[in-house]
Amino acid sequence: MNNTRNQPSARKFWSWFMPVGRQAGSWAFALNRITAIGLTFYLFLHLGVLSLLAQGPGAYDDFLVLTENPFIKLGELAVVAAAILHGLNGIRIILTSFGVGVTRQKQLFYGFMLISVLVILIFTARMY
Amino acid sequence: MSQSTLSSSASGPRPGENTWIWLIKIATGPLLVIVLLLHFIANHYFGSMSSGLMTYEDVIKYFQNPIIPAIEILFLITVVTHSLIGLRGIILDMNPSRNTLKIVTWLLTILGVSSVVYGIWLALTIASKGS
Amino acid sequence: MSKPHVIIIGAGFTGVATAHDLALRGCDVTVVERGDLCHGTSGRTHGLLHSGGRYAVKDKESAVECIDENMILRRIVPQVIEPNGGLFIAIEEGDLDYAEQFIESCEECHIPLEELKPQEALKLEPNINPKVLTAFLIPDGTFDPLRLALAFAGTAKHNGARFQTYHEVQGFLMDGQGNVSGIKVLKRAANKTEELRADVVVNATGAWAGEITNMAGLDAPVKPTPGIMVAYDQRFVQRAINRLNTPADGDIVLPQRRMVVVGTTSFDAENVDYIPVTDDQIKLMLERGSELIPGIRNAKPRGIYMAARPLIGGGSGRSIARTFKCYDHKETHNIDGLVTITGGKATTLRAMAEKTADVVCAKLGITAACVTKETPLLSYRQYYASPN
Amino acid sequence: MTEQWNITLRIYRQKENEAPHFDNFKMEVNPDEYVLDAVERAWAFHDRTICFRHACHHSTCGACGMRVNGVEKLTCITLIRDVTKNGATLKVEPLRNFPVVSDLAVDMGPFYRKMEAVGARPVLPVTEAEIENPPAKWDTDDAQYIRLSDCIECGLCISACPVMATTPEYLGPAPLAAAQDNGIKRKPELLSIVDCEDGVWRCHSVFECTAVCPSFVDPARRIMDLRKQVVGARVRKLFGKA
To answer: Most buried among A85, D8, D22, D171, by the most CB within 10 A?
Structure first.
């Protein structure tokens, strides 16, 4: 007689990304997941692009010209940002998983996010 | 004291994740952070292009020292392992059925192994181009 | 032959305990409850596993019931009890005058008692009022109300009883001769009414007993007598601390999880469905509570609530006897098929159930004896064992 | 005269065969009352069909967990003053990730079964269950005192956990915290129950459970500690065998 509207279900993955009104941990989790998916996509894209190296100088260098295009640069910046965010948040998860800083996990998250923003700004400056 | 009708799920605990998978994921994590840092620096500072990226010749020259392909292959293995275990974790959160999970696990393993093999071949061909 | 069907109205302490007893004696039991378990008074009880000490002087019948049941509950359902005992402490000279008759009455009601010197009491419970003059160790205790009910209900369910929560009784079904043959009930989760037939209907609705009997044109001598209780956010003591004097307002503080609960008051009330909390009673609890445990003065209240005790018959407030009564309306009003049980205390839920079950079994011609005294209850989570 | 607020109590309504909707109740409340009192008053004086779970009214039974303005709260100890303002709305919904019986009442069955599966201790010595290193004040003979455990099985952590929202099989914060409280050394059979995809490895360190826990359990920290226990047990098993 109970309805299933409110029950857990696989279709509810949007709940990973519903940190509205939630604590730092939810933002970290949502961020971690988005950057993870983005980085994995880029990993295989990157492996594919590198195959041009095997075809000799022409193909690869022509491709490099593309990297001047501002949109591609933005994409690369996004990858760099994702790597930094995911990396630092990963360290936070590993530290807390071993009981280090568990009571201060929020501060850890805010601290790491600050570092990420700074590094990302440096890279942006370098790139443009 | 707990009655059989009281166990959480009829089929008992599902073996999709275990200590070793998790340990591999969190071992490759920090390793990745270090190697990625080197990779960034190598690619964005020593390259001859204005943006720091390496041209074809740069790459070939860079790969002459045999340490570099070794590091790049190690890097490839860790990043592929880490990302595919993580991806599998995300898929697990979609609550797949038992055989879907088996298929997914197989696909990811094949994808992982083949990209590592392809990476090793690529690294070696680049290294050999220099001689 | 098929088991006789008994409907029990009300899933408070009495209802679930009676369901447990009748299920063991071979009845097919259906418990019908307007809300969920312990929605009425049972949920908002103090949580005191009574030693009877508080009633020894004025109400020996209740006191003996309490101490006997106290010992039984410690044996059959330890999983929901903090069995750390209690202290009756004297703080003012006036309290000491009460000690004399207190000791005599406790012995008379075979309530184990041990007098402690003030330093001994302060060593056992450092947070009680340092001005303690004398103290008596007594086998009080604390329980978790919902889980006590769940333990009985879970065991009853395991033995075949059915629990229909969110089912509100609307009226009785009468057979030709003016006897009760079942109930009309509203399934609140679906806004649908149903009819349920039974050989006997037990009205175990405590303070609401009158409301139910009115549906059969009778009145039940129940006087809802609410009292306030205030829970504070620190566990100051391991034992229940009582004031050594005639029962009065705010004369007990008992530990529960990481809290202490100060109670209680006693006044008359008409509308039992919602009893507002009043500021003066909260202040009174703070006053009296900090007389027993000074630390309460700077503790933060965590929960403040009212509970309507189902007291029987005339008189007012504390003077009414605190024992319980079971009415077979065949004898009282010549209406067969309806039994009302009310009055009593939380601690005596098993005894109330035994008496009610005896009355019901007599009506149904069941000879099985009551075995709940020796039957340990299952885990309270057993109530949720098989998906219903 | 005590302060009075006029608020709109907006309650989630769901009957068996009807689509869920919200009912609004304009009410005058004392801000120092609890949210549960407002809901009970709405039932008593405005609409007797409202179904909701409550029992002890002082956070020992765990029956009245609900989502108040989107955040999991134990409504019997949540002051109205802390969750809304005068003239504003107070939205009350059932907990997430539980089957809804009706309106605000949910079925605790699946959750209680998981707690039983890990053998959660209902009572324990007062000297145990401290999450930080046990405070020095417990002396040896204090261990004789038994108290009801911290976890009141209210289900707030189950509702707050985003991972719990995706699969009913996941044990969830409270059962894992109870497994940690039992300890794998003391109950080795727990290892196979928690060292799996529905156990300790599904937790993604979101810490929402600890954020909403009203009873000092700190489930997130206990899950992290349970991870150490599981890793330790597996490694010992490996070398024990090898």
So the answer is: D171
